[in-house]
Specification:
The protein has helices spanning about 1-5, 90-120, 135-155, and strands at about 10-25, 40-50, 55-70, 70-90. The protein is an alpha+beta fold. Strands 1-4-3-2 form a four-stranded antiparallel sheet. The radius of gyration is 21 Å and the shape is globular.
Length: about 160
Amino acid sequence: MAEANQQPAQQFALQRIYIKDVSFETPQGHEAFRQQFKPRINLEINTKQNKIDDSNYEVVLTLQVTATQDEKTSFLAEVQQAGIFAVAGIEGAQLRQVLGTVCPSILFPYARECIDNLVTRGSFPPLMLAPVNFDALYQQALAQAQQKAQDQDANETPTE
């Protein structure tokens, strides 16, 4: 009887890391190289999760880097770095947190290296992105979702 009440052991394992999509554009062409390169760099980060089966999840980390100079785009690099993760014995909020923080943290160094490689192959100076705190981003997203839910509840008017 005691064995039936025990929860299954928590398991988390990386199965595979791969590039799902990659893109690099130099909209200005050769004109981008005719001036001293001092761009403004903008980084956008997104993650999404897909349940593959009962114990496997695909997590996709998307990094989009845009370099602009004088209001013109010098380059745009985008990488969708994906991983397949086996997860067992983790559910609910804890599962969402693992998929939203641990998995992207594992994928980020691969995506960062891919972005740097694309940029240097595009004949631009190396671009080493700073580390990202996915725990803080996750907490921020939770807070925004809670605020949005509260705002929607406040805006709903009871009907009589």
